[in-house]
Design a protein that fits this description.
Layout: E1 2-7, H1 11-22, E2 27-33, H2 36-46, E3 50-53, H3 62-72, E4 77-81, H4 86-97, E5 102-105, H5 115-130, H6 149-155, E6 162-167, H7 171-179, E7 190-194, H8 201-209, E8 215-218, E9 229-232, E10 238-244, E11 247-253, H9 265-276, E12 280-284, H10 293-301, E13 305-309, H11 318-325, E14 331-333, H12 335-346
Parallel strand pairs: 1-2, 1-3, 3-4, 4-5, 6-7, 6-12, 7-9, 8-9, 12-13, 13-14
Antiparallel strand pairs: 10-11
Helix pairs in contact: 2-3, 3-4, 4-8, 6-12, 7-12, 9-10, 10-11
Amino acid sequence: MVKILIVEDSDVVSLLLKTIFESEPDMLVIGHAKDGREAVRLAHELSPDLITMDICMPVMDGFEATRLIMLTNPVPIVVISSGVDDEELRVTFRAIEEGALAVLEKPVGLNHPGFESMCKEMIDTIRSMVKVKVERRIGANRLPCQGIFEAAIQQQTKAHEIVAIGCSTGGPQALFSIFSNLPLNFPIPIVVTQHISRGFIGGLVAWLQGGTMVRVVLAENGQPLKPGTIYFAPDNVHLQIARNESGLIACFNNDPEINGFRPSATQLFKSVAEICRNRSVGVLLTGMGSDGADGLLAMRRVGAHTIVQDEESAVVYGMPGSAITLQAVDQVVQLQDMAAYLLCLVRK
């Protein structure tokens, strides 16, 4: 039985969350905190398996509550936020930085057409996050793995044009770890498909920009792809790349969902495989499901260099694990080494 503590200052939203969770036979709501201070106390007293965390609350907000819980009594935390304004988005991603594992949109009313799909995403995320051993993931320090860089050095004979990254649950933390260690003059563009609840991608981009010297933007249709810039797929469109007389450009399409997602990492990877072939790098990071695995295989088949995050550092190993099963992977790289590995790979 998954024991859940709900932290939410609205009784209406709290009751709706309780109804959603307890409709599942393996979930039980064991407490409800109306502010962050109460959340810290109940996390200690009740020992929940998982906490859902509101952001804007009286007395103590969700960021400070997350920080204190992760310092004193680590437990998987999923932020459930309305994301209605810039300040709430800012605090939401600060909570992610402090150790919250995922961010989800607050559920809409029972009669909303998107209610069932929103509930499914929430339940699937809760089940996956319960399995994460958060205490193992905090404060890990180790020396870089030197052996992997031999593969990167061998790739330096190619003139790489682009790095394509796909990720889902746990992706924001992994991306922050990588991008915060890239230099301002990173020599090629990076394109990213991150699965995240609708309305949060802009906040993610702003948060990442605050922690990296490299420029981070939401991609625009037809936009030229420049070195030293990271381009994210916007909500509800597939991001692909194309080539014109000036070089690589971003392009969007509204094709159906792939593996349940739009944007899809597989769609991005397949376009990179077609346009850049062996002059590209594909990276699949932490995430639920298998999106991106088929696309990474397409990249490997045309000679691109394909990489996945290591299992130990991944919040969920569904996407990288699926790629390994398909034999789509050239190299498994530990997250702490990923930025250095990419730099070694694309060094001219």
